[in-house]
Every structure is written in C-alpha cells, then in structure tokens.
Specification:
alpha/beta, Beta-carbonic Anhydrase, Chain A, 46% helix, 14% strand, binds zinc ion
C-alpha cells in the first residue's frame, strides 16, 4: 500500500519516476512475474493504474472492466494473482464520473439510453445496481456516492465469494481495500461508504 501511495503522490505532483520500464526490467520479468499488488479498476481510458500509481512492468496485476465489478472471471483473475503470483494487496479502484455507474443510475431511473438496446450493457448495469440502491437518497452527489459504494461492494464481494482469499485476509496475509480516483487532481483516496 505504501508503494502505491508513494507512486500516486509522484503522479499527482507531476514528478512521475516511470520506474521498471527499461530493457533490463523487460528481460527480468520475461522470466516470471511477482506483482506486489492487484488492481481491479474501470476500463475508462483515463484510469490506467500503471500511470496513476507510477509503476512499471511486472509491478501491478491489473484487471479492468467497465464499472470495476466482480463476476466469476474477474474473481478468478484476482484469485490467481494472489494464490499463484503472491500479490498481497487487492485494491478495487472506482473513479470520479464513471460512465458505467452513471448509465446504471440513469437506467434505474427509467432514463436508459436507447442505443444500449440489444447490448450486454444491461448485464453489466445489473452488477452495479445494488450500489445505486444502497446510496442515500439525499446524497449531495449521487454519482460520486455510488462510485465509492460500488468499489466497497466489490471489495466486500471478493472477501465473501472467495474462501481462499478470505482465509488469507483473516490470516493477515492479504489486504482488500476500496478506493476512489479523482479525475481532476489525480489523487487516489479510500472509498467512503
Ligand atoms: Zn468508469
């Protein structure tokens, strides 16, 4: 976690070090990977974990899907990173003004986009919908509230739905955290929920 925080601070300040991305690093990790952290985040083009945490090749095991939701394929990927690659931290990272979260809020309010007809977007929205329903009705910024709740829900689902990962958390060998990325200033902060 300290490495992620330090890297994000470098990125926020505009002084990224761009570590571990030279030829020597590429050769080294070609032989095998031991990422120190796992990030589940949105597919949004503005939220690339290696850049916003200022990390390089082989540092982060990254799973990305719109709305940073957890289905079986995602959970399996997260499990693999911990059990087989030795990652000791899973961070679920939601982000400000997430389009997938906004689309879900709109759809539940009966204002779905007609262009989504016939797509699988509804199936994705169904995974985000519980976070929308859990948001307080009087939240000053509903979208932002749901972003944080959605990330916290995903973190909780990982803990609940994966017995091996849960055992590692309870043994103090793994941390699962939820966080929010600010598109404007680049900061990653713990998700409020
Ligand atoms: Zn998003």
């Amino acid at each position: 976690m300290a490495r992620l925080v330090a890297g994000n601070e470098r990125y926020v300040s505009g002084f990224s070090a761009h570590p571990n991305n030279d030829l020597a690093r590429r050769s080294k990790v070609a032989a095998g990977q031991t990422p120190f952290a796992t990030i589940l985040t949105c597919a949004d083009s503005r939220v690339p974990p290696e850049l916003l945490f200022d990390q390089g090749l082989g540092d982060l095991f990254v799973c990305r899907v719109a709305g940073n939701v957890v289905d079986d394929a995602l959970l399996a990927s997260l499990e693999y990173s911990v059990i087989h690659l030795g990652s000791t931290l899973i961070m679920v990272l939601g982000h400000e003004r997430c389009g997938a979260v906004k689309a879900t809020i709109d759809a539940l309010a009966g204002k779905g986009d007609p262009d989504d007809a016939g797509t699988k977007i509804g199936a994705l929205a169904a995974l985000i919908a519980p976070a929308v329903r859990a948001a307080p009705a009087d939240a000053p910024d509903k979208l932002d509230a749901v972003v944080s709740i959605n990330a916290s829900h995903a973190a909780a689902e990982i803990f609940v739905n994966s017995p091996p990962l849960r055992a590692r958390v309870l043994a103090g060998k793994l941390k699962i955290v939820a966080a929010r990325y600010d598109l404007d200033d680049g900061k990653v902060t713990p998700a409020k929920s």
